[in-house]
Structure formats: C-alpha cells, structure tokens
Request: fold
Amino acid sequence: MELTIEKSIEEKIESLITQSLEKILEKNIESILDTKLDSYLGKKLGFSPDKNLEKKLGETIGQHNEHEAKEWLNVQETCDYIGISYKSLQKLIDQGLKGNSIGRSKRFSKTEINHFLKNVQA
Reply:
C-alpha cells in the first residue's frame, strides 16, 4: 500500500514538474519568437535594432495618416502616392497630368491625380 502511495505521489510530482516546464518553455518560446519577429520587422522596415519597434511603427503610421490627409503633394510624395518612378511621373505630366508650380517647386493635387488616373485607365 505504501509503495502505491509513494508511486502516486511521484507521478503527481512528475506531472506538476512536466506541466511547469512546459509552461516555462512556452513562455520562453513566445518571448524568443516576439524578439525575432521584432528584429525581422525592424530590418525589413529599416529600423535599427536598438530602437523601440512599436514606437517606430507608431511614428510611421502617424506619418502615413498625415500623408493621407495632405491634399497637395510634392514630386517625391506624388511618386510615392502613385507608386511610380520620377521618369514615369514625367510621362504622366506629358500625357496631361496637371500640377502647380510654386517657384521651383511643383505640387500635385491628390484629387487631380485620382481624376487623371481614373480617366487614363478608362
């Protein structure tokens, strides 16, 4: 009878140790994966690994939202907005995309860009 009780206690202890180790391993694996994911995303998005990825992502999203709210875009912003190169933008200008010059700076209205692209594709 004593042997069965001892064996039962040993099995319980073994089970508790196994469950504890599994939980510890699971948390460590999650932590490692999170760190690796942050590092991978940081490299892909051009952030140095010593900077807080969450903060940088927030700034990037903020800049994107600010860019989306902007109506008038400079040449580089226009290229980024359409997803084309500078040479391709020049071709669109030759085809009739209108922009406004302010001194040496050229600005394009997002409304005009969208209207022009819709008519070109139609």
About this structure: The radius of gyration is 29 Å.
